Amino acid sequence: METEDTVPEDLETAFRERYQSSPSHLARAPGRVNLIGEHIDYAGLPVFPMALQREVRIAFRPRDDSLVLAATTDPSYAPCHFEISPRIEPYDDGDWGNYLKAAAQGMAAAYGIERGFDAVIDSTVPVAAGLSSSSAMVIATALAAAGSNGLEPDPIELAELMAEAEQYVGTRGGGMDQAISAGARAGCAARVEFTPLRIAAVPVPTDWRFVVAHSLVQAHKSGGAREGYNRRRAETEEALARVVGYLELPASDVLSYRDLLERVSGSEAMDVAEERLEGDLLKRFRHVVTENERVVRAEVAMRSGSLDAFGMLMNGSHASLAADYQVSIPELDELVGIARDAGAVGARLTGAGMGGCIVALAPEGTVNRVVEGLADGFYSGREWGGSLEDHMFVAEPSEGASVGRM
Ligand code: GLA
Question: What is the pLDDT of residue 172?
């Protein structure tokens, strides 16, 4: 992960103005778009994301003490400072600095590091958009902490540590976001598997295009969306425990859906669930089991270049997330509908949902139509700040995180 790099000029200037010296290193970590496999990483099942060209970048210089001083190029985020230690008191709920603290505390607890750094951060990952701006921030901070202390952690080890560390902000996330941000390969999506974490790169066919479009509804992981997310996760666990009980399997051996699906087939598990569960628990269970099957088939479809098959699986995923996992909202459904009408072969909400983005798949020759369709059909009638590319863009499968010395 250690590379030779140059600091982008704006970041270099901001650093000089703030600290009256030059940064010595640059850490960068990409956001991600999940192509398929939603809300099943915490069930222990494989997911299929890819890293984006949008990333968090941290220009930094190690200090001689244990302080971390951090500012961002976006004036709406106040600068912060704290000491690196294995137990760091969090800021108030919702404070962006908690992502830095999460990473610093995790690195101190795992490696006993004591040296802090001065940092200026910028990010091109839209915030609270379901594109993992927070995990990109955590991974980039962890790399800055590592680089300041002469460590070069392996990406898989770093991703596992940071998946745990990020729970500091209060969302019981799975490990997908940290894994793809740390371990992605350029030009590829990845099958990410858990316990132990494994990442298998799958080349994205060069004529496939994934369009990411924001609903303009924010889903803050450290805010309101946290409760909805944690509740879904608890319901999913409850449904599993009941099915394991009905099947009279040893509860101590079947701790995840993966454990269950290694013992019984998806259709057997569904038969029991249909018979014994009801209401939301049945819905959550059905989403997890069917989404797992879609991930397996999606990987085959991508490897064989079957665009239409991949698109249909994305549509199936969205339907399941809307009806069974109940994490869609009208704006996401509308975006999905517009994208499909404009020629996308498939479209779905991506990330945790309840706001955030959709991802739509189109062949190279049709992608402009999809982008135009979304611009006219969704964005033209609404108010939004910045440029349209801040809200909608064609994703480029990008390289995972790195840290470089200047
Ligand atoms: C968030 C979490 C991930 C994953 C997704 C839903 O992004 O951080 O671990 O659970 O939601 O698939």
Answer: 80
> What DSSP character marks residue 246?
H
Cα–Cα distance, 278 to 104 (Å, whole number): 43
Q: How confident is the model at residue 4 (pLDDT cuts 50, 70, 90)?
A: low
Q: What is the pLDDT of residues 268-302, one digit of tens each?
A: 999 999 999 999 999 999 999 999 999 999 999 99
| H or E stretch covering 228 | helix 225-246
Amino acid identity for residue 41 in this structure:
D
**Closest atom of ligand 1 to CA, residue 130:** 7
- Cα distance between residue 333 and residue 338, in whole Å: 9
CB neighbourhood size of 312 (10 A): 17
Instruction: Kindly state the greatest CA–CA separation across the chain.
Output: 68
Q: Contacts for 74-79 with beta carbons within 8 Å, 24 or more apart?
A: 74/122, 74/123
154 is catalytic: no
Q: Which amino acid is residue 346, in one-letter code?
A: G
Dig out the tokens for 9 from the structure: 């000029």
Average pLDDT of the residues in 185-200: 97
- Select from 176, 195, 348, 359 the residue to mutate for testing ligand 1; criterion: most ligand atoms less than 8 Å from CB: 176
Helices 155-165, 133-148: crossing angle, 10 deg rounding: 120
